[in-house]
Fold this sequence. Notes:
Helix content: 40-55%
Order of helices and strands: EHEEHEHHHHEHHHHHEH
Low-confidence stretches: 150-159
Largest sheet: 6 strands, parallel
Radius of gyration: 21 Å
Strand content: 5-15%
CATH architecture of the largest domain: 3-Layer(aba) Sandwich
Distance between the termini: 16 Å
Number of strands: 6
Amino acid sequence: xxxxxxxxxxxxxxxxxxxxxxxVHLARQWNGEVISVDSRQVYRELNLGSxxxxxxxxxxxxxxxxxxxxxxDLSEEYTVFHFQRDCFSAMDSIVRRQRLPVLVGxxxxxxxxxxxxxxxxxxxxxLELRRELDGVPEEQLVERLRAFRGHLHNxxxxxxxxxLVRALEIAEYTRSHPPEPLPPIRPxxxxxxxxxPELRRRIRARLEQxxxxxxxxxxxxxxxQGVSRERLNRLGLEYRFMLDYREGRLRSEAEFVERLHxxxxxxxxxxxxxFRRMERQxxxxxxxxxxxxxQADGLIKIWLKSDG
Length: 308
């Protein structure tokens, strides 16, 4: 018999905080399966640059089942809609096997699409609407979008005209095609926390490890396969900085490593800011210093007992 709401263990935190290590430990302890919440690890072609490490899930003969890794090609754009759809599908199959879904990752928009139940739908292009909006001042487009949505929780939709038109296209479509309601969830959110200096040290060590393992070779292979520079630039910091280094816009390897390290540290700060905003909006995150497993186990025991 399926539960009335899906119990969902969520492990979040900034990059290099050891979320996956903790998530795999807890999945072993509590009969769980991991669902990755990472906007780049969905792509088969991205490995070292995306921080993907299959060994974290255990040896081949003792591997924790994990989902939403290596499920898309770079030739397609995997969006928050795709993630939400695939995540709920994975959660349903895990629960049907009488196991615990364990969400692990730090992509904030993906997390909130599940936790807050964003109403998302696959929206086809509306060429008639695009013609209608052509030439309309951006200020008027923003006001029109605000009329649909009220508060704009995703202000990046208003930063570029193409994104703004697409957001209006989606709003028009979902008004007459409301998505199916999502199943209810009962989440426990555990956050991995390190003091800022220690997190910076961990980021540096992880970066050097990935470079030694051949991260630049991965970029070279992607270019040789015909992946465009524009596509690589959209894949995030590592690929953008590696491209700058390979094309001579960074003067030395030392400058490349230093600037990339600083950029990843800034990204980690933005992730932490996102998690604090989640808390201000009502999310209860139990922060665990250093991802200490014993504290996490204690919280899970209380949570599971509270189900009645």
